[in-house]
């Protein structure tokens, strides 16, 4: 044992037994080395060994190395390093999806529990459980639901095995009904038909190569044992041991993974503190602590029973499934909040994990809290019972692996990243154990049958967080069990919600099982052993064609103010003053190596009232100066005639709803072409006409769109007829669209809805311009949905069709994101609703999710739908919010992946992409969101009156892509085309 070690005193310890020198009684506690040494003595030396996790194989004998005794937790525990490591993470770092796989042999499974699925509550001699008693009393469960029949798994072993076999799971976690095996809880009441049922189930699993993971107790105590005070009665420890002993002996030749209890914290606190679940005892002061004390002793006894009698011959694992919700401090920099978060975990998880996995005793945080409150209440002893030294030695180390049930995080809302942090906390707090996630899932309303989108998102995010913990953090995650195999009786919620991967129709007396969409996804996750990087996400190294146009986009309204216009009704704080900062902006463009610059003309700057009655020469002169400066810097201008800033005078007479605006726009275009056309060779008539049209209501969108299309055509003809021959430029229209994927790819109506979304956004304007008229799809839908409401789609005359068709020299395209579409029956334009996948990275804009793969798909759509036109990407970018961080890795990630998808479309798919423009050069006023959304490569410090432009880290990344005309492979780096940021100029936050 530890003793006085000469000059080192008590600072060095050589003993096989720990001696507490701070205790005057000097108690001795055996260390793990004592157990190990006893085995060496028993074997009279060492035999040839083969290690497998905590399991050691000695010839024909299999032993589990006892977990080492760990020191008690500090307050807060040393595991607070998890908060210190993860809490400072940016949203980008938290959300970034991790592609990778688990190691071979990872345990994938699904779960259920006896009372939730078996039914047959009194069949073939089964005795009642506390849950039978509780649920059969009217009013206790919604709709008076109970588990009398549940999923009828007692009679449907074959159906359940069919589901498991189809999923190809490796593990099925289920529980035994104690009262089905021993109707009154005692071995003397043995019910052989109950044993036969479990033998059939286990044999069926083994025959299908599915490993049984058996929970001995999942809340359904035999009522006869509750009648003698259940878990409050210390006698139940030996009674439970007898039950476990029988199960080991009867099923252990095939069952190699045992859990003694499921969520003992829930048993103690919800059952005896809050009184919510059976036995519904509401004595939070002391009953939960007494019950937990007995549960821990019962678990330890069951563990030792297996260890001493069955492990050598059966070679299985024994553990206990604990439960925890990750708790995140509101502010990790405030010590008391970290202490509070740690205490919450210690009370929920440490209550049972600390005795088993650390030192055989309760955590100090818990002892102090309960002890202090007990003292304040005038009690002579703490309400938290004490363990003797023998108890501690008996309990410590009684788990071969760490099993955890977890569902959510205690912070502002349920978030998946809490799972990664919880797993890291277990690693730090409990000596890096092997961890099995034995329950993880999400409930959906039973009105949702097989199309369970929320569960799809849940599985993709939560399993990925477990993968991050394993691959990135070194947490020894060995298995993941999804909750649950099928919809079942959900305790206090009855049948009002379902956790299942399979839908069970409880209104049908045959209780049919139907796989949900989540079952298909989970099958793929298990088959792939995680999330291998999809081929579509792999980087392609290559280059765009020579002469490719690299560009930046900027809208005049976002940085210039001159004359009144419709958009001026938007509230704004200030402006970028680009009107007076041409030289500075040109320098920014030169830094980025762009060869083109897209900007828009302010219609009211040229024509204050929107007509040719007055031409503002000073306004025209500004654009001449800007264009001249660009050309002098070898940067060619791309000019948009209309980017939403309609002169107010025209809006006052109806704006785009007034047919006369077609001629007004033609005249405006004529003036600009005539003035600047000898210098500008790339023209865009209208930017994103879809968004202009959708501002209106009722019939307005159709009328506005009709006039926008005609106005574009007239401007194109003006250029074609009067200026093309001498100026030699090109003219087109810039159309915007998201890509749309079906929310459920197995559902045809969702696939149809996704097509409608794209057809309406792109096709509303592209179809007339490229094909001469609205598409039949659009005509038919609007005729069906809108005619009855008095909102017909305007029609083009044959002459108008002829004049509009072919008014393009290229396809101008703005794109930012992808949506998931689903069918909607109520009347809107597309007859479709859209959502986002939760695995997609957020941005500073609620509507913009980072979804690069959609970019390539929509570029291919344009190629196929509109005759392979030359495409100029005229806007693409991402926003951020919050405090400025010049190290904008989020933007770098976006551009790398989106531009790479465009490169794939060009090189692999043959899409005729001629140019790319990023949105936007600098942070500016983003329409209705003001300055909150920041799309820029340059930060504008608006607190400085001179409004300086400061490059973000993304500047040098984008400059490299431009200078390399694509992407160089890692093997080519370093390369002369790479642009490096100046040293020492910027401190990235």
TrEMBL record:
The answer on whether this UniProt entry bears the keyword Glycoprotein reads yes
> Which is a Pfam family this sequence falls into?
Glyco_hydro_1
Q: Which domain of life is it from?
A: Eukaryota
Q: Which InterPro entries match?
A: GH, GH_1_N_CS, Glyco_hydro_1, Glyco_hydro_1_AS
**Molecular-function annotations in GO:** hydrolase activity, hydrolyzing O-glycosyl compounds
GO BP: any one term: carbohydrate metabolic process
Key words of the record: Glycoprotein, Glycosidase, Hydrolase
E.C. number:
3.2.1.21
Membrane-spanning residues where? none
Q: Where is the active site?
A: 439, 875
Q: What protein family does this chain belong to?
A: Belongs to the glycosyl hydrolase 1 family.
Subunit: Homodimer.
Per its record, how is this protein called by name?
beta-glucosidase
């Amino acid at each position: 044992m530890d003793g006085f070690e000469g000059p080192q005193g008590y600072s060095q310890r050589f003993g096989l037994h720990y001696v507490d020198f701070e205790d005057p009684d000097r108690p001795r506690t055996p260390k793990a080395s004592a157990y190990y040494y006893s085995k060496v003595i028993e074997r009279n030396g060492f035999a040839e060994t083969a290690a497998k996790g905590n399991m050691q194989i000695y010839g024909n004998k299999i032993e589990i190395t006892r977990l080492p005794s760990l020191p008690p937790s500090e307050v807060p525990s040393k595991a607070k390093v998890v908060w210190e490591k993860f809490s400072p993470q940016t949203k980008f770092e938290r959300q970034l999806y991790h592609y990778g796989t688990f190691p071979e042999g990872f345990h994938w499974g699904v779960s259920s529990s006896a009372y939730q699925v078996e039914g047959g509550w009194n069949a073939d001699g089964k005795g009642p459980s506390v849950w039978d008693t509780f649920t059969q009393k009217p009013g206790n469960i919604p709709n008076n639901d109970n588990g009398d029949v549940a999923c009828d798994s007692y009679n449907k072993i074959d159906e359940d095995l069919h589901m498991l076999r189809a999923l190809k799971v490796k593990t099925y976690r289920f529980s035994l009904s104690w009262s089905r095996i021993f109707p009154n809880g005692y071995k003397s009441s043995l019910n052989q038909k109950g044993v036969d049922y479990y033998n059939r189930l286990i044999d069926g699993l083994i025959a299908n190569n599915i490993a049984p993971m058996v929970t001995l107790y999942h809340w359904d105590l035999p009522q006869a044992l509750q009648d003698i005070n259940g878990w409050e009665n210390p006698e139940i420890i030996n009674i439970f041991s007898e039950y476990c002993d029988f199960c080991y002996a009867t099923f252990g030749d095939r069952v190699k993974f045992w859990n003694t209890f499921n969520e003992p914290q829930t048993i103690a606190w919800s059952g005896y503190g809050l009184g919510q679940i059976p036995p519904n005892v509401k004595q939070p002061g002391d009953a939960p602590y007494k019950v937990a004390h007995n549960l821990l002793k019962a678990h330890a006894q069951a563990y030792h029973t297996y260890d001493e009698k069955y492990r050598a011959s059966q070679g299985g694992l024994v553990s206990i499934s604990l439960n925890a919700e990750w708790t995140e401090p509101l502010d990790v920099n405030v010590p008391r909040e970290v202490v509070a978060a740690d205490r919450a975990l210690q009370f929920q998880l440490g209550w049972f994990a600390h005795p088993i996995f650390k030192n055989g005793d309760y955590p100090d945080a818990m002892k102090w809290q309960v002890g202090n409150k007990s003292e304040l209440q005038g009690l002579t002893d703490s309400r938290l019972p004490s363990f003797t030294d023998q108890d501690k030695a008996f309990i410590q180390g009684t788990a071969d692996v760490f099993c955890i049930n977890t569902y959510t995080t205690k912070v502002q809302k349920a978030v998946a990243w809490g799972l990664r942090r919880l797993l890291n906390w277990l690693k730090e707090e409990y000596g890096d154990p092997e961890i099995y996630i034995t329950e993880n899932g999400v409930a959906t309303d039973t009105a949702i049958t097989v199309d369970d989108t929320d569960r799809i998102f849940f599985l993709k995010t939560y399993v990925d967080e477990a993968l991050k913990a394993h691959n990135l953090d070194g947490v020894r995650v060995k298995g993941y069990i999804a909750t649950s195999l099928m919809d079942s009786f959900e305790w206090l919620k009855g049948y009002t919600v379902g956790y299942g991967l399979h839908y069970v129709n409880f209104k049908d007396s045959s209780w049919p099982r139907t796989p949900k969409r989540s079952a298909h996804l989970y099958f793929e996750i298990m088959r792939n052993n995680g999330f291998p990087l999809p081929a579509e996400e792999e980087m392609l190294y290559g280059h765009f064609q020579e002469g490719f146009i690299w560009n930046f986009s900027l809208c005049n309204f976002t940085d210039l103010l001159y004359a009144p216009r419709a958009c001026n009704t938007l509230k704004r704080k200030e402006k970028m003053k680009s009107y007076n900062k041409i030289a500075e902006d040109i320098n920014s463009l030169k830094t980025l190596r762009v060869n083109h610059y897209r900007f828009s003309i302010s219609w009211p700057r040229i024509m204050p009232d929107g007509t040719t009655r007055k031409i503002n020469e000073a306004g025209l002169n500004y654009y001449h100066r800007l264009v001249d400066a660009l050309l002098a810097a070898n940067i060619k201008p791309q000019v948009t005639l209309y980017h939403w800033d309609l002169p107010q005078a025209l809006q006052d007479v109806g704006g785009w709803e007034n047919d006369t605006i077609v001629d007004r726009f033609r005249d405006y275009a004529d003036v600009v072409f005539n003035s600047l056309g000898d210098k500008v060779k790339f023209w865009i008539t209208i930017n994103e006409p879809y968004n202009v049209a959708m501002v209106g209501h009722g019939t307005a969108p159709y009328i506005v769109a009709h006039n926008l299309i005609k106005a574009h055509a007239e401007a194109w003809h003006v250029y074609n007829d009067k200026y093309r021959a001498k100026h030699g430029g090109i003219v087109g229209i810039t159309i915007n669209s998201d890509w749309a994927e079906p929310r459920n790819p197995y559902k045809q109506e969702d696939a149809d809805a996704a097509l409608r979304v794209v057809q309406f956004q792109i096709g509303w304007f592209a179809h007339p311009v490229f094909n001469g008229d609205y598409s039949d799809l659009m005509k038919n839908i609007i005729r069906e949905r809108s005619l009855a409401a008095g909102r017909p789609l305007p029609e083009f005359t044959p002459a108008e069709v002829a004049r509009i068709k072919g008014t393009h020299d290229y396809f101008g395209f703005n794109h930012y994101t992808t949506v998931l579409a689903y069918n909607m029956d109520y009347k809107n334009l597309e007859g479709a609703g859209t959502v986002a996948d939760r695995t997609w990275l957020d941005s500073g804009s609620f509507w913009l999710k980072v979804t690069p793969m959609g970019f390539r798909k929509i570029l291919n759509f344009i190629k196929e739908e509109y005759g392979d036109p030359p495409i100029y990407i005229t806007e693409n970018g991402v926003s951020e919010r919050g405090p400025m961080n010049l190290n904008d890795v989020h933007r770098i990630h976006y551009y790398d992946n989106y531009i790479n998808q465009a490169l794939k479309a060009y090189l692999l798919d043959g899409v005729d992409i001629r140019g790319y423009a990023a949105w936007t050069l600098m942070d500016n006023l983003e329409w209705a969101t003001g300055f909150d959304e920041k799309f820029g490569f340059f930060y504008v410090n608006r607190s400085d009156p001179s409004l300086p432009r400061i490059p973000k880290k993304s500047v040098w990344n984008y400059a490299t892509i431009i200078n390399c005309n694509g992407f160089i492979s890692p093997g080519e780096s370093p390369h002369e085309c790479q642009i490096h940021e100046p040293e020492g100029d910027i401190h990235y936050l």
